Amino acid sequence: MLGLKDKVVVVTGSARGIGKAIALKFAEAGSKVIISDINDEVTQSTVNEFKSKGFEAFGIKCDVSSFEDSQNLIDKTVEKYGKIDVLINNAGITKDNLIIRMTEDEWDKVIAVNLKGVFNCSKHAIKYMMKAKSGVIVNIASVVGITGNAGQVNYSATKGGVIAMTKSLAKEYAGRNIRVNAIAPGFIETEMTKAIPEKEREAWAASIPLKRAGKPEDVANAALFLASDLASYITSQVLVVDGGMIG
After folding, report:
1. Which helix (H) or strand (E) holds 6?
2. Per-residue model confidence (pLDDT) at position 203
3. How buried is residue 143: exposed, middle or buried, by Cβ count under 10 Å (0-12/13-18/19+)?
4. CA-CA distance, 11 to 31, in Å (whole number)?
5. H/E element holding 161?
6. Catalytic residue among 81, 128, 155, 173
7. What is the pLDDT of residues 169-188, one digit of tens each?
8. Looking at the 3D structure of the chain, how many domains does it have?
9. Model-level pTM?
């Protein structure tokens, strides 16, 4: 039903957190998964973990902010498997600060990874998807790309940009049977959100209509759906996964 068996799926930032959960969902669906992260040691550890569970996985170290690294990621994938069917642009960082205190470096680094990284990987993947006249890209955005958030002008700007890029790419390549959608997660339990003080996390969770934070698996399920045959007539959309937080 999902049509994901033997599909070749690249997930950036997938050595841990939401990316790892997404990669695991695809592996469970029978896909061949490329685990990619900036940390080679953690990447290989995750690959070994997947293999120990009987899944087919391959690791490629990649800094998505680098045009050359991103090209290497996609080219090596195609070299190994002969194709790329699905790209999940998940890699992202935060460097939060009020704009009055935010440094140029804090702005530049978040833009380079979260926004340029999506451009880099998508550009290289689309080249192969165009030849195959088939492909799916799912970009991991955020609800703050829709609502904004104090102390996150850099992060919010990148996620708003990812949403705009998603819609533009969907229009550019629909004629080549390439679908492009985005997911906008809300408050998800990850290493990133664990850094938030506990009282603040509890208050945030209490404000969500479903009265809980989301889990990485909630985002992973959405990515699996959007990449599957069940979503074959869906493109240029933003699927909000936030427990009703932004209404």
Report:
1. none
2. 81
3. buried
4. 12
5. helix 153-173
6. 155
7. 999 999 999 999 999 999 99
8. 1
9. 0.96
User: Has residue 93 been placed in a domain?
Assistant: yes
Strand 57-61: give its sheet, edge to edge.
57-61, 32-37, 8-12, 86-89, 135-140, 178-185, 238-241
* Active-site residue, 81 included: no
Does residue 214 fall inside a structural domain? no
pLDDT tens by residue, 188-221: 998 777 777 788 778 878 889 999 999 999 999 9
Neighbours of 131 (CB within 10 A): 12
Q: Which domain holds residue 111?
A: 8-186+219-232
Asked if residue 25 is part of any domain, the answer here is yes
Residue 102 lies inside a defined structural domain of this protein: yes
Query: What CATH number is attached to the domain comprising 177?
Result: 3.40.50.720
